[in-house]
Protein 1
Amino acid sequence: MRPNYACDSVEHFIARRSFLTTGLGMTAVLTGIGGLTQCAAAETLAAQRLSRQQKRILLFNMHGGLSQLETWDPKPGTETGGPFRAIPTSVPGIHISELLPKTAMQMHHLCLLRGVNTSEDDHGKGAYMMLTGRRQSAAANYPELGAVAAKSLVPENSAMPGHIRIVPWGGGGRGNDAAYLGPKYSSVALGNGKPPQYTVLPDGIDDDSETRRHAFRRSVDQNFASQHRSTMTDAFLNSYEAAAQLMQQRETFDVEKESPADQDRYGKHDFGRHCLLARRLLQHDVPFVQVMHSNYDTHNENFDFHHELVPQFDGPFATLIADLADSGLLEDTLVIVMSEFGRTPNINLYMGRDHWSKAWSIVMAGCNIARGAAFGETSANGTEVTDGQVDHAQLFHTYLHAVGVDSSNSFLVDGREMPLADPAAEPIWKVLT
């Protein structure tokens, strides 16, 4: 089903730092008393401990403007409620839309925030606010959450990109979403969940030849850098080394390596594969993964489209939450389900809902976020927030605190302090445990 959108916007055309201290100290002690075997065991234990402590963020971007009324904050029986029922969840007293029956059974892991008010109904500006925690301005450009997470959470010597987006279209390459943090922290886009482009050796070049080519390149680079080193040459060297390491990690991005049973559980449709790939990346300690599900900009036939799209999301999302919880990864993984805004309580003459940013919902789970909770409340017809109002800036602070990053800190960029989050806001302490 292809919608004919009333909104004429471009969006519709794109459907371990502690390791060194702990690990090296333990290695020195064990080497002195037990030799190499004990040393190797200690290093393995330290690596396992690091993996368990590595914080991660998984963001579901419900692109276009997901309706809160057809998902997290239903209003059945009201003039604005629409045709769908509210159903009970695994948490007594909390109800969500009947379009999310499998997610409802995972409510004890989730935290609903039903009082979001960002007061921005433009797609581009709304998305920018939700991903950066700031309003868009000609005076400054800010890095998205993925870039901030990559810089804050990724070990400097990591072989994997720290900021990955799984998008339902072609794509590939790097994003332009790290602002002053630099291209190292920009996103890598996996088009339709496929491995990064150009990570397979061309025919005629074997592994031995590739090793010798890199050895020659490094020799030339080092000789040049010894005489003409600059920020630009460092950037080029880092790019080549990152690409070489990424090629060695290509199998990490191959969802076909997962068991047939898991592929069946998640579903062999695109979004199911994307969620299974996200799980695979999190298991390999990628600190930030964004999964795009699109397109929710339902100015026309809102109920038909949500009836089609939301169930596509429901099964794989619920399966992933259950898997993360069962494996223990949810303890160290912050899950966010967001959009750029919600949909109007009013139903227009095309049986659609328009842009609405004054009273809508997002979902969080994992890390030190309250479990089985619903924070905030909207009026009986969903037109305004009546309790627990929050905005984009508070949410951004909350995301960082949830993964152990002090959002009141700053990055030092070219000698200038750049706050991680809006200094005028603070976290939503009531949802942090």
Protein 2
Amino acid sequence: MESYKNLLFEPRDGVAFVTVNRPEAMNALNTEVIAELHDAFRRIDDDASIGAAVLTGTGKAFVAGADIAQMSDLSVAEGRAMTIKGQRAMEFIENIDKPTIAAVNGFALGGGCELAMACDIRLASEKARFGQPEVNLGIIPGFGGTQRLPRLVGKGMAKYLVLSAEIIGAEEALRIGLVEKVFPADALLAEAEKLARLIIAKAPIALKMAKTAVNRGINLDLSSGVAFEAEASTVAFASEDRVEGLKAFLEKRPPVFRNR
């Protein structure tokens, strides 16, 4: 297990398990945690032996928000600098080549909700709670929440959640499209690992190109998005994995993919 002050980092048979580990602070994000998360996902992206990542939290929280104690002492300039660092970390996590799964085990509020939204797929414990309550503190979501939330749940629902600061449960998060599936608390990590292993059995280059096409295309008009899809598809089609995948299908056997 790799060493971080605020994270547990454990690569295991192709899947990296990253656990935010500040239970005394409900796993709140301070500048140090943000830097460690950025570093951990950089390592995941660079390590060819890792095919996917599962992100979760210790104890009752996934991440209960930004560290209010630290934020209260920041100047305006320091607050802006922290916001930008957080945004860059979330953007990096969102755009790494490897698929990422947020296993939301408890409170995912403020920066925690934003961190979950930066992952490709969100699985939630039935005990999970989500919200962007920043307006209660005289601030707004600053780690991408005002941008990713409407892309996931729609403009109106995003405004409702941000402006009301309402905290919602896992089933409501599922209903509005904030999470993909909900599981009993004691099954969450096993289900996240099961999904990660299902994904890493696929062709790595195809996974990378599919993720890139979705991430890039959602910000483009349809014609431009389809054009980008054609380029991404061509990259996958040119890979050895495509040859192996089609051959295995015709031979009625499981494919053996090598490219990563």
Protein 3
Amino acid sequence: MTGSHEEHDKQAKQAILDNIEKYGCHLALLEADNYMPAFAYTIGLYKKYNHPEIICFGLPTDLLGALLNHVRDIVQAGEVLVPNKLYPGFLSGYEVCFLPVDEAFYADYLGYGGWFYDLSFDFPVLQLVWPDKAGKFPWEEEFNKDWKFYQPLLDRNTDFKFFEERNLGVYTTKQVLDGEPILFVYHNDDGDWQFHSSSEPDFNDAKLVSLECITKLDPTVNEIYFLQYGWKAWRNRAGDEWEYEEDT
């Protein structure tokens, strides 16, 4: 089994190398699920052109691919994309902007990239950020609030990685608030979150708090920011890696 896994890794890495050689980069495209938006990123721009890799969120994967291929064309022509500058030509009628990605997000979104670069995240990344139909960007007050969580801004908010408002009400228990570790997490079909220290909590002890309160009590819950609707996560003790699956 180990041999077949190693062979698969070898073939996958060779495919990435072949794409980089043939096209200038490889595109990792990840479809949306019932909670997370779609996103895509380049692999190889740094290796081949010494240019930051690029990641983009919240659009159909065919459009994400087209945007990143346009990035590739620009980089191949010798231009260096820089943060906090408006660029036309990516989306018809709109300018886009690039932000430097904080390394705290690399493991969350760039796993294949880290694997390709010899199990290292020692490479720069920029996030391509697109505006709403009024030309406003997510950090602007007038940005379309319905689109707020389509593209997380990876240059900030390293303390809170969920695709929710910080003041979202979530369920926990008195025991968790008194210091017992969070070992069981549920993201219900209706979007509610539950954070418990026991698999069978006494709901007479239930408390309603903000999601930000939970992340401050235990920052490691950020590690399961991606948990889909209808899924659960658990661990045996604080500090262990989370396991997760659909809650059937």
Protein 4
Amino acid sequence: MVTIFTVLLMLSSLLMIVLVLMHKGRGGGLSDMFGGGVSSGLGGSSVAERNLDRITVGTGVIWFACIIALGLLLKSGS
């Protein structure tokens, strides 16, 4: 059981990294430092951005649940 949660944690961690990097920079952060400060005139959130936000939050919940489950399993000695 620990192995399953460990693999799921690694996969969700990698997916979380990719999803966070896909997000558009909001300004004032590291994205501006490396040329990401050029804003387009489209403004507002598109459907794709909102879906990306939802997927990122869902992946974060899975990641958090894996951390809790692994902590409980390793504490109980299973």
